[in-house]
Amino acid sequence: MILLGLEVGAIMTNCYIIGCEETREAAVIDPGGDVPRIMKVIEKNDLKVTHIINTHGHIDHIGGNKRLKEETGAELIIHETDAPMLTSSGRNLSLFSGSVVSGPAADREVKEGDTIKVGSTVEFKVLHTPGHTPGGMTLELKVDDKTLLFVGDTLFNSSIGRTDFPGGSYKQLIDSIKEKLLVYDDSTLVYSGHGPHTNIGFERRNNPFLV
């Protein structure tokens, strides 16, 4: 597996590029902006983007969808509950950010338990983890004996996602973390939408919102 990351956009969203070493096909998770930089990383690593995956529908995670899709022809994927946010500048908050985004629509809407296969070796399992947004999702990826979770803005290193935006729910968010994420082993790696990565054990013991 190939795992690359870069911070994009005005509020430094973590964009992840996950590639299959055998086919060189790749998924881009949360291209919030700076598509030329994303494309440089893709080209440098000789990858072909086949999937664009949004962990949720806020502007800082979807801002580069249109241009990246135009550049690559990749399939655009989001949880079914957040799909309307892609085409609504009010719902995705871009109306209030000075950079209005209203499209493109999703090519595929997923739900809890669905899988997204990239190339021949990469397969994500979809976990519905609402709270930050109604359709927030986590992508589980197993690599050899390791489990990686791409959690969007559900869980951060020593913190949690905001719940004061429209559609947010503190109770839902805490329930999502405790029922869907903390059930994993302590060694499970957590790749968040902002800030440094962490692991389940550290958050279980140290996150002030969870202890």
Summarize the structure.
Helix content is 19%, strand content 32%. The protein is built from five helices and 14 strands. A six-stranded mixed β-sheet has the order 1-2-3-4-5-6, covered by helices on one side. A six-stranded mixed β-sheet has the order 7-8-9-10-13-14.
Q: Notable features of this structure?
A:
6-stranded mixed beta sheet, globular, alpha/beta, 5 helices
Care to describe what's here?
With 211 residues, this protein is α/β, with parallel strands linked by helices. The protein has a single domain (2-206), classed as Metallo-beta-lactamase, Chain A (4-Layer Sandwich), CATH 3.60.15. Helices cover 19% and strands 32% of the residues. It has helices spanning 35-44, 59-62, 65-72, 170-181, 200-206, and strands at residues 2-8, 13-19, 25-29, 48-53, 75-79, 108-110, 115-118, 122-128, 137-143, 146-152, 155-156, 159-160, 189-192, 198-199. The strands form 3 sheets. Strands 1-2-3-4-5-6 form a 6-stranded mixed sheet, covered by helices on one side. The longest helix is centred in the last third of the chain and has 12 residues, at 170-181. It is globular. The mean pLDDT is 97.
Strand percent estimate: 25-35%
CATH class: Alpha Beta
Give me the CATH architecture, please.
4-Layer Sandwich
Q: Could you tell me how far the N terminus lies from the C terminus, measured between alpha carbons in angstroms?
A: 33 Å
Q: Structural class from helices and strands?
A: alpha/beta
Report Rg.
Answer: 16 Å
